[in-house]
Fold this sequence. Notes:
Pfam families: ABC_tran. This is ATP-binding cassette domain-containing protein. About 35% of the residues lie in helices and about 25% in strands. It is built from 9 helices and 10 strands. The chain has a 6-stranded mixed beta sheet with strand order 6-7-8-3-9-10, sandwiched between helices. A 4-stranded antiparallel beta sheet has the order 2-1-4-5, with helices on one face. Bound molecules: adenosine-5'-triphosphate.
Amino acid sequence: MIQISHLTKIFNDKSGEVVALHDVNLEIGRGDIFGIIGMSGAGKSTLLRCLSTLEKPTSGAITLDGVDLATLTGKQLIDTRRKMGVVFQGFNLLMQRTVRQNVAFPLALERADRAGVNARVDELLELVGLSEKAESYPSQLSGGQKQRVAIARALATSPEVLLCDEPTSALDSLTTKNILELLHNINRKLNVTIVIITHEIAVVKAICNKVAVIDTAEFVEWGDTAEIFKNPRSDMTRLLLGYEVMKK
Ligand SMILES: Nc1ncnc2c1ncn2[C@@H]1O[C@H](COP(=O)(O)OP(=O)(O)OP(=O)(O)O)[C@@H](O)[C@H]1O
């Protein structure tokens, strides 16, 4: 469903060119829970920003169901963005709005009728297990509850893909486990394809059926999680798995 072909992203800053992604190729299938793992600065967030159309590739292409994202403008771009929900590490909630208002936010343009929006929000809050917090403000919630609100909001427009940027790295291990279970349930119940950016091998092991390992702007290994972790070929995968890696 998502095809990344020869994707390169170069930033120009004061110190010169930074190659954040170099000739990246990847296929993400419908229904996958796809983990993208790598060290800090490897290019993970840049890839997610390119996938969510927040960043334009320098060269190469990303297609969603055969449509090149770079060719989209106006209504087509808005419609495609609605097919992709994004969940961030820092939750990105509107602090002055209630949980209900946060989840309703993406629906404001779509549905004029208040009753319809409220019914949809109730459904989403039930899905993430937060029905009783609808009238609370984000400051009254725990980190895990805030992330549940962010997930409900990302699902409001019934996206086909959920892009998650380090969704659990601000959370303790038990809360991480609960959030990963929730993402797994959403994948199964709603058949939403999930892409998770992470630096934590435990996250990939817990829920990803596919994984790609990124090392300084390039993918070094990708495929079925179980196979790759059983027989890692790249030094970066071995390092992430906690193996001793010989210096060359
Ligand atoms: N807007 C920008 N301008 C210049 N360089 C950038 C910009 N955004 C990212 N970079 C650089 O691109 C490289 C990849 O950054 P990116 O944020 O994608 O890495 P990451 O793997 O997500 O790291 P982390 O896990 O620490 O968030 C880094 O060298 C970073 O400094």
